[in-house]
Structures are given as structure tokens and as C-alpha cells.
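Quick one - first record:
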Amino acid sequence: MTRLARIGAAFSALMMLAACGFTPLYAEPGVSPTLSRISVSVPDTRAGYELRQALEDELAWDRGQTPLWRLQTDVEQRRVALGRRVDDTVSRYELVLTVRYQLAPVSGGEAITDAVTATVTYAAADQAYAAIAAQRDGEQRAVAEAARLIRLDLSRALADLNRP
């Protein structure tokens, strides 16, 4: 009897959810086709290149379609020393990556402007190559997080524009 009660409760919950007018963010005709038609412009830096790659992956950019939107970005990095060893060398860094972006329709019109900030930490290594590798890994993680946050912001903004 307990199994039947659980099935009934789950079915009732699904029926109530269906009746409330809830529409998933990625439901057709939703945001997904629009996200894939956003072209990305980034600064000519290593972080900019990585941001372009991450955004194109996050937005599932379709190179075969004509872009409907243009995303212009500006990247700012700040590295802060967090911990110090007994010999006064840095043991840990915090990388703060701020991405300011503007999404504008290619055909003209009002642009959406906002910014996201991604913060990561990484250990400072004693060997030069290990320190460079740790810093680049931190940059890649920060860029991936910033791209994810931008996708979420754009999804929300475009979903609001598509509402009747």
C-alpha cells in the first residue's frame, strides 16, 4: 500500500505542476534556439580567447545560422595574495575575474548590459612551471564559471523578452 501511496502522491504533484502554467526555461519555443544564435566578441588576450571558447560551448553556438545577437565582452582580472609562509612568500592566490558584457540585437535595438564576477583560488607552487600551470588552471576555472553565469543571465533575460 505504501508504494501505491507514493505513486499517487507523485502523480498528484505532477498534475499540480502541469496546471500551474510552469514552462521550463529550455522548452520550445524557448531560449535554446536564441542562445545558439549569439556571436561572441572578446578582448584579444589569453583570458579573452578562453572566454570565447567557453561561451561558444555554453551557448551552443551554431556557426551555420546567421547571428541574431552580438555579445561584446570586456575582461578584467585581479590576483590577490591570500596566504604567506614563514619566509614571507605567497602560498595561495585568489583570482577575481570580472566580465562586463553587452548583448545587442544585430538588427539594432536596445542592448542588455550587465557584469558577472567569478572568484577562484589556487596554490602557489615553488617551481616556476608548476606556478604557471596553477595560475592558468585558475584562469580556466574562473573563465568557465564566468561563461556559465553569463549563459544563465542571458537565458533569463531572453526568456523575459520572449514572454507574451
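second record:
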Amino acid sequence: MSIWWSLHLRREAASVPLARRLLLGTMETAGVDPDISYDLSVALSEACANAVEHGGDASAEDYRVTARIDGDTCRIEVIDSGPGFADKLRARGRRTPTRPHQPSPDRAEHGRGLFLIESLTDHVRVRNRSGRPGAVVSFDKILKWREGALLRAV
């Protein structure tokens, strides 16, 4: 059995805790270990905060979050309509990070979102949307289950 959901959210700060709470509720109901749920919720919060802050100009009013639990893996994807990762990807020289992004020391309040996502999950992919403006951040994490977990029992 699998569970998935998709949200279209306004690019407003209030959307971040909404997405996080929905993810945590889904994980709790499914029976995912609380530590894994917490890691994923922090990663999702960072991805959503990036979409809110960098996801486009005034005409780009929303962004999309999709989460899927399939077997022992959770995949989360956040898509916005902003300028994308063109400059950052060229500077980093890769599309799929293989080691955590190192934030610039002179930017204490910025540049830590991808670092946190990479640190808290098992696989991260950042890319630009195909054929239209925007960025896609997707990440996976192998799940651990509580005893008697609803999804694991099926």
C-alpha cells in the first residue's frame, strides 16, 4: 500500500507549517518512527521556506508540494515558479548533490536550507523545471516503522 498527497500552496510564510503538519500527521497515522518523521518535516519546512522566499516574483503566487510513502521510502517534491537553480547548479558543478552543500560563512542566515535537507535525508535532487521557469527539490528517506505500524502491516 502507498499514500500520496499533493498541495498547491500560496507563497506565504503561513503555508510552511501547514505542509509540515500535514506531513507529520500522515507519518504518525502510517506508523513511521517519530525521529524519521521529524527529520522529514524539517527538510520539508526548509524546502517550502525556500519556495516561499525564492520561488518567483509577484506573479508566481503558489508552489506545489507532493509527498509519497511507497514501501519503506518517502519521497517529497517541492516545485516553484522562480528563477531556478541555473547559477547555483553551475557553481556546484552537479545536478544531484553527493555531499552536503557547504553554506557560505558570510551568509549566516542564508544558504543553509539545502545543507539541512541533504543532512537529514538519504538522497536529494535539485533541478530546474522542464520547459518553464522554476525549481524542483526532491528528496527521499528510508523509513523506519513503529511496532504495529498501519502501513507496514498491509
